[in-house]
Specification:
Oligomer: single chain
Distance between the termini: 14 Å
Order of helices and strands: HEEEEHHEH
Helix content: 40-55%
Structural class: alpha+beta
Largest sheet: 5 strands, antiparallel
């Protein structure tokens, strides 16, 4: 579907989006700091620089992002259609919200949330939409 150079660019951008850009904003209702979360780093508001590999404990929030990365790779090889890619991108952004709902509803006696609350930052969804739009434009010309 895409030529070799375009696929390499798509893979590099996908890896940057999945592993380096933040996937969400961590909201702590208790005394803990709020901050941006990425798979490879965390940046609490109280710190001036990112803390590497401290966000690994939140794997349930970003695990599906790896599925979306796989879907992007399949899409770049022509093994997946646009509709399915966009569905994966949407689900990737909905999962942190669904996991966070119990964290909002259930607090312990100190007023802290049991489950971390993540507000998604949809870089990955926007990238999947741009890829689908690019393919749609190329196919129609």
């Amino acid at each position: 579907m895409f030529n070799y150079r375009i696929r390499i660019i798509i893979i590099i951008i996908s890896m940057i989006i999945v592993f380096i850009l933040p996937y969400g904003y961590h909201v702590d209702l208790g005394p803990g700091p709020n901050g941006f979360m990425s798979i490879t780093w965390e940046c609490p508001e109280t710190e001036s620089s990112p803390i590497p590999f401290s966000a690994l404990e939140y794997f349930i929030y970003y695990l599906y992002r790896l599925v979306v990365l796989n879907a992007i790779l399949k899409f770049s090889h022509g093994q997946m259609n646009m509709k399915r890619l966009i569905q994966h991108g949407i689900v990737g952004e909905i999962i942190p919200i669904l996991i966070s709902i119990p964290g909002i509803l259930f607090l312990n006696e100190e007023g802290e949330n049991y489950i971390p609350i993540m507000i998604p930052i949809p870089f990955l969804l926007l990238f999947t939409l741009l890829l689908a739009l690019y393919k749609y434009k190329v196919r129609n010309y």
